[in-house]
Design brief:
Layout (H helix, E strand, L loop, with lengths): L2 H7 L5 H7 L4 H16 L2 E5 L1 E4 L28 H13 L4 E4 L9 H14 L4 E4 L2 H10 L4 H10 L15 H7 L6 H13 L4 E7 L5 H18 L2 E8 L15 H14 L5 E2 L3 H4 L1 H7 L6 E4 L20 H10 L3 E5 L5 E4 L1
Parallel strand pairs: 1-8, 1-9, 2-3, 3-4, 5-6, 6-7
Antiparallel strand pairs: 9-10
Helix pairs in contact: 3-11, 4-5, 6-7, 6-9, 9-10
Length: 353
């Protein structure tokens, strides 16, 4: 059976098929990805009203692609106090957020309690908020730093009020690429094992893929297939988030930036390869809002949220530092011919506009 026949019959695609998808023209790819997306969600585009908080940028790791952690490229180290974090959450809670998304650097000086106690403090003060926190990279860092198992850290996360895990730290799973861009960070096998344990605990998570740096197409397909295999086993991933590499203020000297065509092809291929992960998120903070909206016709069905404040992608040049207002979201989605749907963190629909 050839590739087009497989796409027509929606047969599961293999590694060779994944690579061959990139050779199709953009509009053929878009047709099949959009058909899959429309069968699932029609014209709905999901978003949530959330707040990103990045409590510290002091990090023991030096990932070559990172512009957020404090180093020679970003000589402004900071660590927020719990009072500062709670004040930020309180301000955003008044603005109607449903989720607080907390991701930090790997700060060896703050202590395990500093990480965990802020979650319980948020839950205590704002019991209606969904706490999405600690990437698998942070879980690995904390487990190593405090001589605990991944399961022990996960138990503490649940105990202290973490509701779901973000998908950060996945980067690209190929170990040779990881050794070049983020040596010493959580390995692909460890990242997958942490999410496996989280899912077995009855919890959900997201997953990212950082692309457009030194990886090749084959590495992206390999990354997707490893995720698909774990999803077959656990069914715990809510969304796949292909993150477009931001080239500012970091140590990866990438000369050739991705074309919009390559980004859209990767979005479409994600939808076609990941037949078991419900949502494909075009995270506007890395792709720009315009491309995130175009991506909705190439397999994506989500653009993330209002975020309010964001420090990680904006440090590398993304225009996401101050988030985006909900009315802007609604206007942009509607003028693109889609139906805006506010969702909660687990994709339950809150309001269809």
């Amino acid at each position: 059976m050839n590739l087009i026949q497989k796409l027509e019959t929606e047969e599961r695609l293999n590694y060779e098929d994944g690579l061959a998808l990139y050779d199709l023209d953009l509009f053929t790819l878009g047709k099949y990805a959009n058909r899959r997306r429309k069968a699932l969600y029609g014209k709905k585009v999901f978003f949530n009203v959330n707040r990103h908080i990045n409590p510290t940028n002091i990090c023991k790791d030096v990932c070559k692609f990172c512009a957020f952690s404090a180093n020679r490229k970003n000589p402004n180290p900071y660590t927020m106090s719990h009072e500062e974090i709670l004040k930020a959450v309180e301000h955003s809670h008044k603005n109607g957020i449903k989720e607080v998304h907390i991701v930090s650097a790997h700060n060896p000086d703050t202590g395990l309690e500093w990480y965990l106690e802020i979650f319980s403090k948020i839950k205590e003060k704002f019991p209606d908020l969904h706490v999405k926190a600690l990437t698998a990279a942070e879980v690995d860092f904390l487990a190593t730093q405090y001589h605990l198992t991944y399961s022990q850290i996960i138990e503490k996360m649940v105990e202290f009020g973490v509701d779901s895990m973000p998908g950060g730290g996945a980067e690209i799973f190929d170990q040779e690429i990881r050794d070049y861009i983020c040596k010493g960070k959580v390995t692909a096998e460890q990242w997958l094992e942490i999410h496996r344990l989280w899912h077995k605990r009855g919890k959900n998570s997201n997953v990212t893929m950082l692309f457009g740096h030194v990886e090749e197409r084959k590495h992206r397909i390999d990354h997707m297939l490893r995720l698909r295999n774990l999803q077959d086993e656990t069914n715990g991933f809510n969304a796949f988030i292909p993150l477009v590499y931001q080239r500012g203020n970091n140590y990866l000297k990438v000369e050739n930036f991705l074309s919009s065509t390559e980004i859209l092809k990767t979005m479409a291929i994600s939808r076609l390869m990941l037949d078991n992960i419900p949502h494909i998120k075009a995270y506007w903070a890395t792709s720009t809002m315009n491309l995130a909206l175009v991506s909705q016709e190439f397999g994506a069905d989500d653009i993330d949220g209002t975020i309010e404040k964001e420090a990680i992608q904006s440090a590398a040049g993304a225009s996401s530092a101050n988030g985006m207002g909900i009315q802007n979201f609604l206007d942009l989605i509607e003028t693109s011919g889609f139906i805006p749907v506010e969702r909660d963190s687990l994709y339950n629909e809150i309001k269809v506009y």
